Amino acid sequence: MKRNRHRGLWMGLSIIMVLVVLVTGCTASDEGEQPIELRLYMPGANPDAPMWADYSQYFKDVGAKYTELHPNRTIAIESFPATFPIENMARKLKAENSPDIVFPVNSALIPSWLKDSILLDLNPLAKADGVDKSDFHQPILKLTESGGKWGAIPNVVLPLGVLYNKSLFDKANLPYPQGKWTWDEYLSVALKLSEANPGKYGAVMAYNPFYLEILLAGRGESLLSKDGAKAEGALNSPGSVQTLQWFNRYFRALKLDQISGVSNDIATGSLFNLGSVGMKISTSDGYTFFKKQLGDRLGVAPLPGTADGRRANPLSVVGIGISAQSKHAREAWDFLRFATMTEHAYTSKWAEWFVLPSKSMAAATKQTQHSDLNVFIEEMNYAVESPAFANLDFALLMNESPFLSGFSSLLLKEDGELPVALYQLAQKTDGLLMEKAASREASSSK
């Protein structure tokens, strides 16, 4: 401690505070507090999304630990279906008897939910507690803020990286990729891997709009306009045309168009898991999945950038926030800090699933000492919110046949045909987006 002159005084006060906790079971600020139930609103278990059972158990465990420290405060989880419409969530949070805490809060919702007083601005609470927000990677933090307000503590971040199979690199006598590189260099390495490993693929990407959006993000462009409202003018922009031409050349050069179900990430992921692919773009949780099968053969490289040095990692951030209607905002904030910014017995469990956006928590869980995870941690410094991913209607549309069938047909087009084909797809997309918006509005008015 720097204040050596007062070491005895500070030690004495610390011992007194510890004794207060041990003897009374609460901190001095909890004495005389009336019993409080903090209600945490989150998805329940779902057969199609089994991880929600794990997340729910995590918050139950953390809640029980928190109650040990604050006996007058309990955490009650209120579940809703994982497919619950966002409008219904918003309606629940705006009600007078709103839950106190909500998870997950997608970064795409934060601007409107702050504006509509669905979420509480966390800045006054953070300032009162002296929270150092620079502990978070700033591009990640920025995605949870809007209009000078802070809508949610980021706790689920899935940065992208390039997973690679070391065995295929060793056979090709190629160095493992590391540091900055470009998409053209990525393709060059992929072709060399294919040549040196007959019957295997140097790299795979599913032929779907998700990967085209990743490529466009590096150029500062998107499948949708910057406000995420429409496709025409963005999906068919000159930059989109050029990027799709590169994407098509990539597929044909690596013979990826011969893969059955190539538009599906499950098919390409299965090939990578079997050791039949040299490189695959994946999120940090994908790394955890493939590590179980590939073990020490698995490595991670940064996401490639453009030839002029631009780098972007398009992602959505999910956080945990407080309802603006909560009657226990101060206590809810205290629990949020405990769950996301405090080292305890369960912090490492969350770190098994996600790279942590808090630098101090990443260090505490030793993520920063893991060379592969460090690649994903570094990628958070290049995080950008994709307009396409931020439009939740479009995020759904990207996985539905009316849009996917039109997108898949682009692989069969010659370069000169793409401008018209993309214009037609953009018009079709805007029509589908309008239908989704009308359907959602009709549903919310019932």
CATH classification class of the largest domain? Alpha Beta
Integer tally of domains: 2
Give the fraction of residues assigned to helices. Answer: 40-55%
Main sheet record: 5 strands, mixed
Biggest β-sheet: strands ordered side by side in the sheet? 2-1-3-11-6
What would you say the CATH architecture of the largest domain is? 3-Layer(aba) Sandwich
Using only C-alpha atoms, the radius of gyration works out to 24 Å
CATH topology category name of the largest domain: D-Maltodextrin-Binding Protein, domain 2
Helical element count?
Answer: 20
Overall mean confidence score, pLDDT: 89
The amount of beta strand, in percent, is 5-15%
* Number of separate strands: 12
Residue runs with pLDDT of under 50 for 5 or more positions: 1-28
CATH homologous superfamily of the largest domain?
Answer: Periplasmic binding protein-like II
Alpha-carbon distance between the two ends: 61 Å
Instruction: Tell me the structural class.
Output: alpha/beta
